[in-house]
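Sample pair:
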Amino acid sequence: MVNVVITGGAGFIGSNLAVFLKSCGYNVMCIDNLSRSQERNVRLLSLKNIPLHLADIRDYNKIFDSMKGCDIVVHAAALIDVEESLRDPIPYFENNVVGTSVVTKVCVDLGVERLVYISSAAVYGDPVKVPVDENHPTNPLSPYGLSKLLGEHIVEFYSRINGLKYIILRLFNVFGPGQGISGYAGVITKFVNCLKNGRRPIIFGDGLQTRDFIHVNDVCHAIEASFKTKHVNEKFNVGSGNEVKIIDLAKMIMSIANFDGEPSFAPKRVGEIRFSCADISKAKKLLNFYPKLSLEEGLRTVFNA
């Protein structure tokens, strides 16, 4: 049986991934310091009998002890709020950059077979062309995006120097049940919460900005595919490949909620990318990754959660 460790395993993506991988027959263990986890996700791990080690990814000794015997590490632990990172950048470098250096060094020291680093489309910044492929220039607009890019460089460095095998997955806007409300990843949760409380969803800006939304179930499939591919030491975009206007997203959720009227609008936010969409042709070709859930199907899983 393949032993998988997930850092940030009590987070939104980590907890969903842990349950998915266990259902696929993997032996799964999670690491989290619970600083940003939701009670729902911790409870989910407990219900599925998935071990959770309490440790901070910056603590080498604890991470070393927790990861002994693992074959694959999925490094998903990170602070992820773009706006917060602009207001208070230092914790983003302390957690995301230092933490990644510790996790990667432990992988090298333990001889882990493969590290899957969960990166972000935020590394690209404002796209010069859409859809964005993996060769697009990296020009982050936030400390969060920069921290994820620096993490990529750390992983690549240890691969070059020590022969560590890795896969870097640049996730676009992941959504699904159990998600928080931070940043644009959480816009769907925010819209749903507004509608469930009888309020109109609030759009920042004109609503014509676009994002590529990918359901967490599809992300789990992409991560598991990265365990099996022979194409290691590569970067892959993980998205739906579909560009969605935020105003259209709001109206789709309002339709699912049978909510009449128009969304509310507020001033645009600082550091916000205007247009974003993933070119996933490389992931299709080398990971055999094909998203299965349509946006509407995925939105219903959130609304009915």
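Residues 203 and 253 are 13 Å apart (CA to CA).
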